[in-house]
Design goal:
single chain; 21 helices; Amino acid/polyamine transporter I; about 550 residues; mainly alpha; about 0% strand
């Protein structure tokens, strides 16, 4: 082991690096951003950023299409894929916690053209998700009233996001911490509420238990009938999970602005499994318990294109059981969750665009940061594209939401594929250069099988993502574009950069595995671990 570490040190020392300046407690090494986010902010961002409209509202459509068993199996299956992707990212990011890491890793360890395509694809994904949350916010408000013009809320939200993101990442981090903490309480409260409702603690004294798994049944038929229809229902649930379940990307993006990343990031990555089980697997189980897939309230809301909380299975269950007040409280908390998710997607999108510029695939002026290390040009551009949410002014918000869901689902699938390919090439380079994974700050589990499993499953779902347009009388050009547009954009960017830059495929023996590591090592060595002095600080240290 000692000889391996010595060998690694020799390899690192041979790498030419640019050591950037350190500034007080906000020292930076990662280009122009600053490390100002502490452990609790990083942890709650990684949790809260994945909890948005999808798990509270959009999941209702999946239940209607597939039924409770299909929903549970689909979400559990997809969580296993995301867990494997998370393990891939954890190894690489904990070694080199740089800004916009997974996009830039793709350039270093696969091919610069591949990195450019990965980065632009992910940025498009963040733009779609950012607009989705803004549109969803407006839609959820209509649960109370539809007298307010739909253009009002995008203006209010974009203004609030600008105030939180254009000056300092500290404002963003602290806001996300508290709102994300509330989201954790919300989803935990919904799970507890589900238990009490199912055992009869409701105004109707109805202990319904797993009744809806028997009547109307565990699996719904979708598009077709019989076994084929039930499988198509399961696949619809799988696509819903592909949109809803995420996480590794957010940790990878925020790593470049985390204080003490070698201590913080491994802990954050290790908690992903717990979050996947608690929020998504148990959440999908709760939805299947509360509402039958043929629930008239939920089905009417979906078939009539009603927006927002009207499509939430939680709200539908509370209305059916005549539970007063609580639907309004849940709706208000869902609004804060949506606001937080939009904030997270703006952060991710702006950092991704900044990373694209740093790698030379976008105009150089986008690299500019303010004195607090915020890439304000990238934030402003990403923020401006939030104006796409004004599409809801001329179209129904439910239709616009479906557009953004389809675009982001396709782009996210491509992102997971790219992450797995990057890890596979990185692992090949580690082997070719004689470096053992045993000396890494984080050694992932189930590798390399996990990476190949996630790659194959993600690629298969991507291929069949828009299968329904090829069925009889199913062709809709817009649906085809939304289902496969991200794949075509990825390929177009890859070919364009390949031809323009003539970038070679990175050889395993020549892959640059350690540039940037020396700066991080020096930064970590300069940190002093101050012991907690108050009870609150001790609690935070234990939790995060």
């Amino acid at each position: 082991m000692d000889s391996e570490k010595a060998n690694m040190s020799e390899k690192v020392s041979d790498v030419s690096v640019n050591v950037e300046s350190y500034k007080g407690d906000e020292r930076q090494h990662s280009d122009h951003t600053k490390r100002v986010l502490n452990a609790r902010q990083v942890q709650l961002f990684s949790i809260g950023g994945t909890i948005g409209t999808s798990i509270f509202v959009a999941i209702g459509s999946a239940l209607v299409h597939g039924g409770p068993l299909s929903l549970l199996l689909a979400y559990a299956s997809w969580c296993s894929v995301i867990f494997c992707v998370n393990e891939c990212q954890a190894e690489m990011v904990c070694l080199l916690p740089i800004e916009s890491s997974f996009n830039r890793f793709a350039s270093r360890w696969v091919d610069r053209a591949f990195g450019a395509a990965t980065s632009w694809n992910y940025w498009i994904c963040m733009i779609a998700l950012f607009n989705f949350e803004i549109t969803a916010f407006t839609a959820v408000v209509t649960f109370w009233t539809d007298d307010i013009h739909p253009a009002v809320f995008p203006v209010v939200l974009l203004t609030a996001y600008a105030l939180l993101n254009l000056w300092s990442a500290k404002f963003f981090g602290e806001t996300e911490f508290w709102i994300s903490l509330m989201k954790v309480f919300l989803i935990t409260g919904l799970l507890i509420m589900t238990f009490f409702l199912m055992v009869g603690v409701n105004p109707q004294r109805d202990a319904f238990g797993f009744r809806f798994w028997r009547d109307p049944g565990p699996m719904a038929e979708y598009i077709s009938t019989g076994d084929l229809g039930r499988f198509q229902g399961f696949f619809a649930c799988l696509l819903s999970a592909g949109f809803a379940v995420a996480g590794p990307d957010m940790l990878s993006i925020i790593a470049g602005e985390a204080k003490a990343p070698r201590r913080i990031m491994p802990k954050a990555f290790r908690t992903v499994f717990v979050r996947l089980i608690l929020f998504f697997v148990l959440g999908s189980l709760a939805v299947g318990i509360l509402v039958p897939y043929n629930d008239p309230i939920l089905n009417a809301a979906i078939s009539e294109g009603k927006p927002g909380a009207a499509r939430s299975p939680y709200v539908a269950a509370l209305i059916r059981l005549n539970v007063p007040v609580l639907p309004h409280i849940i709706n208000a908390m869902i609004l804060t969750s949506i606001f937080s998710a939009g904030n997270a997607f703006l952060f991710n999108g702006s950092r991704t665009l900044h990373g694209i510029a740093l790698d030379g695939f976008a105009p150089s002026f986008i690299r500019h940061t303010n004195r607090n290390g915020v890439p304000w040009v990238a934030v402003a551009i990403t923020l401006a594209l939030g104006l796409l949410s004004f599409l809801q002014v001329n179209e129904s918000s439910s239709k616009v939401l479906d557009w953004f869901i389809n675009v982001s689902t396709s782009a996210q699938l491509v992102t997971w594929i790219a992450m797995c390919i990057t890890w596979i090439r990185w692992n090949a380079a580690m082997k070719a250069q004689g470096i053992s994974r045993d000396i890494l700050p984080y050694k992932s589990r189930f590798q390399p099988y996990g990476a190949w499993y996630a790659l194959i499953v993600s690629a298969t779902i991507t291929f069949f993502n828009g299968y329904y347009v090829f069925l009889k009388d199913g062709w809709v050009t817009a649906d085809f574009i939304f289902a496969y547009g991200s794949v075509f954009i990825f390929m177009a960017v890859y070919v364009y950069v390949k031809l323009l830059r003539r970038s070679p495929f990175v050889s395993s023996t020549e892959a640059d595995l350690f540039s940037g590591k020396k700066e991080i090592d020096e930064y970590e060595a300069m940190l002093t671990d101050e012991p907690p002095t108050t009870r609150w600080q001790r609690i935070l240290r234990w939790l995060f």
